[in-house]
Amino acid sequence: MSRGGKVAVVGSLIFSGLVIYGVHYQQRKERETMHYGVIKDAERQRLKKLQNLQDLEAQRALQTELEKDQSVRR
């Protein structure tokens, strides 16, 4: 095999290896990004639930306060 042929084969092997590494690196980063999104969604849901519970308690307290001032038939 000529020297030019060897250089071409080695060059194509190096290029292929770099492309494969780049694709795997990109996939790993995308997976991490998607996982971070799941974590953010879980935290957002937890905060929303906490806010809803606080709103419910405030509404119950308001209802109790208003029922003291008014006669309510149930």
UniProtKB/TrEMBL annotation:
| Xref: InterPro entries | Pet117
- Major location, coarse class? mitochondrion
Q: Which residues cross the membrane?
A: 6-25
Q: Does the keyword Ion transport apply?
A: no
Note the superkingdom of the native organism. Eukaryota
| Protein localization | Mitochondrion
Q: Which biological processes are named by the entry's GO terms?
A: mitochondrial respiratory chain complex IV assembly
Q: Keyword annotations for this protein? A: Membrane, Mitochondrion, Transit peptide, Transmembrane, Transmembrane helix
Question: Is Transmembrane among this UniProt entry's keywords?
Answer: yes
Q: Name one GO cellular component term.
A: mitochondrion
Which family, according to UniProt? Answer: Belongs to the PET117 family.
The protein's name: Cytochrome c oxidase assembly protein
**Protein's organism:** Tieghemiomyces parasiticus
Q: What is the lineage of its organism?
A: Eukaryota, Fungi, Fungi incertae sedis, Zoopagomycota, Kickxellomycotina
